[in-house]
Structures are given as C-alpha cells and as structure tokens.
Amino acid sequence: VPGIRCRRGRSLLEERVADDEKCRRFERLIVPHLDAAYDLARWLTRDSTAAEEVVQEAYLRAYRFFDSFRGDEGRVWILAIVRNTCFSMLDREPPAGRFETFDELVHSGAFEAMPSAEDAALARQSAAQVRDAVAALPIEFRETVVLRELHGLSYKEIAAVTDAPMGSVMSRLARGRLLLARALVGRPEKE
Q1: pLDDT (tens digit per residue) in 13-39
Q2: Which helix (H) or strand (E) holds 158?
Q3: How would you class 167 by CB atoms within 10 Å of its CB: exposed for 0-12, middle for 13-18, buried for 19 or more?
C-alpha cells in the first residue's frame, strides 16, 4: 500500500527491505559467535540451562539494538552483551543449588581421538583438574581467563567485553593464572 507509512516515515516496502537487510547483517556478523557466547555463559553461570537462557536473552537484546552496532566484527560486541546479560540474570536469581560441574569432555568433544584408553584416562583426569580449577576461580578472574585462554581474545578485546581498563584485565589474568597454578600444583596426581 503506497500511502501507508511506518515508523521513521518509511513505506511498508522500505521498512521490510530494511528489516531484511538487518536480519542478513545480524546473521553474518553475530550468529557465527553463538558457540563462543554459549561457552562464555556456561563458564560464568556453571549451569547449561542457565547458559542457554542467558544466550537466548542476549541474542534477543543484540537483535533489538543491532541498529546501534557499528563495525564489521561482532564477536566482542556479542560477548559483552552475553556477559552483561549473565550478570543481570545472576543478580536476579540467586545461584543456590543451580550450579553443576562443567564437563569439558562432554561439552567440547576435545578428546574423542585419543590413541589409547590409558591416554584417555590421563587426559580426562588432567582436563577435570583444570576444569575444576577454572570453575573455582572468582568470577572476575574466571571470565578473564576464559576469554583469553579459551576464546583467544586480546587484552583490548577483553577490556571491551568486560568494560574494564586494560591494566585491570592484565592484572586479573595474571592473578587468575596464579590462582590456577596454585590450585593445580596443590593437587596430588591420582593413580
């Protein structure tokens, strides 16, 4: 209908074309980071169901405000939204009894091609120790370690995601690594 105008004074056809372009751009720039978004939410919440809720809410928020996104790299932008959504949800819902242990072997499939049963058992033991040590870190260190070591973000990108000064990112990463080292060295090897 040529005479009908939508928001911003555009015709229905112009509005539809703009929405289609927004959707295509969102799918190209933001959707590819869905796994990274879930992984970050999973580490922050320590709960797969809560992580799914966080990611769903974060992607809805991201789409709603996608018109304000500038740039061609959406990874840092969506991870910042996931982090903020996670903290908003954690503030609303106390975590009492909701956390379960994250199993790297189950969630990542990283050890599927181990050559022997002995090697697989050793890898599971080591992975479990590292996973437990990371999960035990205070959240500000855990998020920084996860963003750097698991997602390979630069200090600058982590600072953008966490809205912290670069010096704080470097300090949190150093302290998080130190806490991890202490936790792992303090654990005796099981036979």
Answers
A1: 666 666 788 889 999 999 999 999 999
A2: helix 155-162
A3: exposed
Token pair of 34 as six digits = 């869905």
First-to-last C-alpha distance (Å) of the chain? 75
Contact present, 147 and 159 (Cβ < 8 Å): no
Comparing CA positions, the residue from 40, 29, 41 lying closest to residue 75 is: 29
Cα distances from 86 to residues 3, 62, 113, 121, 182, in angstroms, run: 44, 14, 33, 33, 28
From 7, 17, 5, 86, select the one nearest 51 (Cα to Cα): 86
Which residues contact residue 10 at a Cβ distance below 8 angstroms, ignoring those fewer than 6 apart? Answer: 18
d(CA 160, CA 165): 8
| C-alpha–C-alpha distance, residues 124 and 103, integer Å | 10
Beta bridge pairs of residue 5: 11
Residue whose token pair is 């909701």:
98
The predicted model scores a pTM of 0.67
- Backbone φ and ψ for 11, nearest 5 degrees, come out as -75, 165
Q: What angle do CA 128, 46, 62 make, to 5 degrees?
A: 130
